[in-house]
Design goal:
- This protein has 53 residues and is an all-alpha fold.
- It has one domain.
- It is built from 2 helices and no strands.
Protein backbone atom coordinates (compact mmCIF):
# COMPACT_ATOMS: atom_id res chain seq x y z
CA UNK A 1 0.00 0.00 0.00
CA UNK A 2 3.00 2.30 -0.26
CA UNK A 3 1.42 3.78 -3.35
CA UNK A 4 -1.27 5.41 -1.16
CA UNK A 5 0.12 8.74 0.11
CA UNK A 6 -1.64 8.72 3.50
CA UNK A 7 -0.53 5.16 4.17
CA UNK A 8 3.04 6.01 3.23
CA UNK A 9 3.08 8.99 5.61
CA UNK A 10 1.76 6.84 8.46
CA UNK A 11 4.36 4.18 7.69
CA UNK A 12 7.17 6.75 7.91
CA UNK A 13 5.92 7.91 11.31
CA UNK A 14 5.71 4.34 12.57
CA UNK A 15 9.24 3.61 11.35
CA UNK A 16 10.55 6.46 13.50
CA UNK A 17 8.72 5.05 16.52
CA UNK A 18 10.07 1.56 15.88
CA UNK A 19 13.64 2.86 15.73
CA UNK A 20 13.19 4.92 18.88
CA UNK A 21 12.00 1.79 20.68
CA UNK A 22 14.90 -0.45 19.69
CA UNK A 23 13.54 -2.15 16.60
CA UNK A 24 16.08 -2.42 13.80
CA UNK A 25 15.16 -3.67 10.33
CA UNK A 26 17.01 -6.87 9.52
CA UNK A 27 17.89 -7.52 13.15
CA UNK A 28 14.69 -7.78 15.17
CA UNK A 29 12.18 -6.29 12.76
CA UNK A 30 10.89 -7.42 9.36
CA UNK A 31 9.16 -4.92 7.12
CA UNK A 32 7.23 -5.81 4.00
CA UNK A 33 5.64 -3.52 1.46
CA UNK A 34 3.07 -3.85 -1.25
CA UNK A 35 1.34 -1.80 -3.89
CA UNK A 36 -1.93 -2.30 -5.72
CA UNK A 37 0.02 -3.68 -8.68
CA UNK A 38 2.35 -5.81 -6.54
CA UNK A 39 0.49 -7.25 -3.52
CA UNK A 40 2.31 -8.97 -0.67
CA UNK A 41 3.42 -12.43 -1.68
CA UNK A 42 3.74 -15.16 0.97
CA UNK A 43 6.66 -16.74 -0.89
CA UNK A 44 8.56 -13.45 -0.62
CA UNK A 45 7.88 -13.31 3.13
CA UNK A 46 9.15 -16.87 3.52
CA UNK A 47 12.35 -16.01 1.64
CA UNK A 48 12.93 -12.97 3.82
CA UNK A 49 12.47 -15.04 6.98
CA UNK A 50 14.78 -17.78 5.70
CA UNK A 51 17.54 -15.18 5.33
CA UNK A 52 17.13 -14.10 8.95
CA UNK A 53 17.23 -17.56 10.53
Amino acid sequence: MIDVPEYCQNMASKMELYLQNGFCMGKNFVMTTETHDRPLNSMMVEKILEQLV
